[in-house]
Amino acid sequence: NRNGKFLRFNLWTFTLMKITMQCLEMTTKRKIIGRLVPCRCFRGEEEVISVLDYSHCSLQQVPKEVFNFERTLEELYLDANQIEELPKQLFSCQALRKLSMPDNDLSNLPTTIASLVNLKELDISKNGIQEFPENIKCCKCLAIIEASVNPISKLPDGFTQLQNLTQLYLNDAFLEYLPPNFGRLVKLRILELRENHLKTLPKSMSKLTQLERLDLGNNEFTEM
User: Fold this and answer.
1) How far apart are CA 134 and CA 207, in angstroms?
2) Which of 13, 23, 120, 213 matches a 20 to 30 Å C-alpha distance to 140?
3) Radius of gyration of the CA atoms of the chain, in A
């Protein structure tokens, strides 16, 4: 008896612990798979995937599987591929907060980007983009923009309506001037514009009182 009951209790406890550990291990695996690529092995997990990473996959277009998660997708990484254009369906991903696709072959940023009203971080560096569309102003949540190493010669006036912008990286581009009301970006803390063709700065820059880092090296200033 007492010994028998104790033995049965221990065996039951051990079995319960083993089952619990197996469930935890399986849950962890499911989360990892869900973060990286769409997995159809676990029914019910598809609709809660919020992060997809297709970096360094030699892709020439955005995978269609991405659009299966347009209601829940918050972060999309497409770094270092050969993608030339962004499909319209991508801009139906209303929950998207971060879009990262540096080192691709994009030649433009479509006007449909205005649909990404929750976008906070955008990395389009090392592409062939020549300009931002005027309606970039609709992405009012944008806080970080990395657009270095693109042949961008100017910024549209609408750009200055991104008043939640805290970090802007536009190094090694073809910038010739900044919009007169650039100083409206009063939340900017980091502004990097080195290696451009800037000759002057707008007077409104004096309003950027929260700047912690300003890099204007290797430009063509004749006056400040």
Assistant:
1) 23
2) 213
3) 24
Q: What is the pLDDT of residues 46-85, one digit of tens each?
A: 557 999 999 999 999 999 999 999 999 999 999 999 999 9
At 52 the pLDDT is 98
> DSSP for the chain?
-HHHHHHHHHHHHHHHHHHHHHHHHHHHHHHHHHHHS---SSTTSGGG--EEE-TTS--SS--GGGGGGTTT--EEE--SS------GGGGG-TT--EEE--SS------GGGGG-TT--EEE--SS------GGGGG-TT--EEE--SS------GGGGG-TT--EEE--SS------TTGGG-TT--EEE--SS------GGGGG-TT-SEEE--S---S--
Distance CA 151, CA 10 (A): 70
| Fold of domain 47-215 | 3.80.10
**pTM of the predicted structure, to 2 decimals:** 0.80
Please report, for the chain, the start and end positions of each structural domain, with discontinuous segments joined by +: 47-215
How far is the C-alpha of 74 from the C-alpha of 69, rounded, in Å?
Answer: 9
Dist CA 119 CA 103 (whole Å): 20
